[in-house]
Design a protein that fits this description.
Elements: H1 2-44, H2 48-54, H3 66-74, H4 77-107, H5 114-126, H6 129-142, H7 149-172, H8 177-185, H9 190-218, H10 222-227, H11 236-242, H12 251-271, H13 273-282
Helix pairs in contact: 1-12, 3-12, 4-7, 4-9, 5-7, 7-9, 9-13, 12-13
Length: 286
């Protein structure tokens, strides 16, 4: 009996040690991940002289908004924010809708050559943007959408929907056939099956795609830089790149601009955090 108790105590002690070790490792990882954010916030509220004298690691003395004032005075931030939110928001919503419709046709509609269609969509997500920019730029010129936010919107709807269709079609390919057959027996047409049966089941996955599409499109730089020429049509990442001169760099102003560009995505993430968590964990629950 005493031997069994000793063995149980050893098991409990071992499990406790592992838990503490895991907690310490998780805390260290969290600290490492928060260091860049600390540097961003601390340097955004410094003056140029404070940064030069005390370095990037020290807290600001004093805390000042001078870097924000310089940045907001050099760009039309409300216009940049409007363009970025418009592009990312429209691409996220329309991209998810197009992905759902295309995946429904491929995964449940069983269109001919669906394997090749999925392969082409996969290749579209793999191709580098540098290989696509010339035909995209030429096409935008031909239809009169050069230097228009709608050219970027159309491009990224197609690119994001290609990935979304590839992902959702693989999910819908394993959708229970008995459920679909029961709906058809009850007189449901394809649109009713899509909106009343398929869409509710895939709502968590589509919510995750919505968040990812918004964040990915918000951070896009290369294609918007080529397609959007004038400042009134540009997005926040392009304005950030313009702050870096050939021989000079105002680190505090760049930190303030980066913090302002990060805040909208953080707000969007926190608003949809619960939805994102449910979507990620939905696939693990039968």
């Amino acid at each position: 009996m005493s031997t069994r108790r000793r063995r149980d105590r050893r098991v409990v002690a071992l499990l406790t040690t592992r838990r503490w070790a895991l907690l310490i490792v998780a805390a260290l990882v969290a600290v490492v991940m928060l260091v860049p954010f600390y540097l961003l916030v601390s340097n955004a509220f410094k003056t140029g002289a404070d940064y030069s004298q005390r370095g990037p690691l020290a807290l600001p003395e004093p805390w000042t908004f001078s870097a924000f004032d310089r940045y907001l005075g050099s760009v039309d931030y409300p216009r940049l924010l409007t363009n970025s939110v418009l592009i990312a928001g429209v691409v996220a919503v329309v991209g998810v809708a197009v992905s759902m419709l295309s995946a429904y046709a491929i995964g449940i509609g069983r269109v001919r050559g669906r394997t090749w269609v999925v392969f082409v969509l996969l290749m579209a997500t793999i191709l580098p943007q540098e290989a696509l920019i010339y035909p995209l730029f030429t096409g935008a010129q031909a239809v009169g959408l050069q230097n228009s936010v709608w050219s970027v919107v159309i491009i990224f709807i197609v690119l994001q929907a290609a990935f979304g269709t590839y992902l959702l079609s693989s999910v819908l390919g394993t959708f229970p056939a008995e459920l679909l057959e029961a709906a058809r027996v009850d007189g449901a047409n394809r649109w009713v099956i899509l909106t009343r049966i398929v869409a509710p089941v895939l709502r968590p996955t589509m919510s995750v795609l919505l968040v990812f599409f918004f964040v990915w499109t918000w951070n896009e730089f290369f294609i918007p830089m080529i397609m959007l020429i004038t400042p009134d049509a540009q997005t926040i990442p392009i304005a950030l790149a313009a702050l870096k001169g050939q021989n000079t760099l105002d680190v505090t102003q760049l930190a303030a601009a980066s913090l302002l560009s990060l805040l909208p995505t953080l707000v969007f993430f926190f608003l949809f955090q619960r939805t994102l968590t449910r979507g990620v964990t939905a696939g693990a629950v039968k």
